[in-house]
Amino acid sequence: MVKPILVTGGTGDLGREVVRRLAAESRPVRIMSRRPRPSGTAHEWARCDLKTGDGLADAVDGVAAIIHCASTLGRGDEQVTRNLVEAARRAGSPHLVYISIVGIDVIRFFYYDEKLASEKVIEESGLPWTVLRATQFHDLVARASAAQRRLPVTFMPSGFRFQPVSTGDVADRLVALASGEPSGRVPDLGGPEVRDARDLAQAYQRSVGRRKPIVSLWLPGKAAKAFRAGGNLTPENATGKGTFEEFLAARV
User: Fold this and answer.
1) What mean pLDDT is predicted for residues 37-60?
2) Domain CATH number, residue 44
3) Which PANTHER family did the record assign (predicted)?
């Protein structure tokens, strides 16, 4: 019997893409979620709370690999990852593949600090592991403009650039990594283009048929300075294929 691959956060934006690709390859999948199993789901389902550990032992039991997509957005990622690692060790030490973020070692704020700490937990876990860092997803960049749709202007951080990447491209890489040998820290994955924040906001407005002023907002602090210096970018690893405009055409 072929062991399933467990996808934590399997109902999130990235997790759903990972599940689709595993299913397309006829790989058995076990979805971990805090939500109850929806009707009509063909995959194995593990209802689990990574923060409390409730249901975690059953979720990791008998899996070939774990693709760890779940995130608390900085409200406990390190502890969640520690809980997962400890359960995985007790379950036979499957290959753990973790999605992280480009620049977390040079851009310091609470969410990135949690992601960096999670990486360290995995590196020191004794498990076979692989860590992939990716740039910001298309959807996250679009939300920055969408969240301001009721304002008379759109504010964007001055001097910031982004290299937005498709969740599909990230999912493809994660599935390939989970199917291979543990590789430690692998090359980063960036989107195909480095774009100014203002330019991305204009692209979003065009896609939804709006025209309103875009105001550049200077942000203070060390984190903002690191963003302006390009700490979130990986132009040498612009291997993602999906562009921001393609994302907007399909989703917005």
Assistant:
1) 92
2) 3.40.50.720
3) NADH DEHYDROGENASE [UBIQUINONE] 1 ALPHA SUBCOMPLEX SUBUNIT 9, MITOCHONDRIAL, NADH-UBIQUINONE OXIDOREDUCTASE 39 KDA SUBUNIT-RELATED
Q: Place 165 in a pLDDT band, splitting at 50, 70 and 90.
A: very high
For residue 237, count CB atoms less than 10 angstroms from its CB and return exposed for 0-12, middle for 13-18, buried for 19 or more: middle
CB 178 within 8 A of CB 229: no
Q: Which of 121, 64, 125 is nearest to 89 (CA)?
A: 125
CB 12 within 8 A of CB 36: no
How many domains in the chain?
1
- Pairing state between β 195-196 and 161-162: antiparallel
Give the model's confidence band at 252: pLDDT under 50 very low, under 70 low, under 90 confident, else very high: low
Looking up tokens 């921001």 gives 244
Domain that holds residue 29: 5-251
DSSP run (H or E) holding 224 = helix 222-228
Which region holds residue 9: left if phi is over 0, alpha if psi is between -120 and 50, else beta? left
The answer to whether residues 6 and 63 touch, using CB atoms and an 8 Å cutoff, is yes
Q: Which residues share a beta bridge with 45?
A: 31
Q: How many CB atoms lie within 10 A of CB 25?
A: 10
Say how far apart CA 177 and CA 133 lie, in whole Å: 12
Tokens of 245: 């405009």
Half-sphere exposure of residue 145, counting CA atoms within 13 Å on the CB side?
26
179-226 pLDDT, tens digit per residue, is 999 999 999 999 999 999 999 999 999 999 988 999 999 999 999 999
Taking the model in full, what pTM does it have? 0.95
DSSP letter, residue 12: S
**Residue 42: pLDDT over 90:** no
Coil, strand or helix at 25: coil
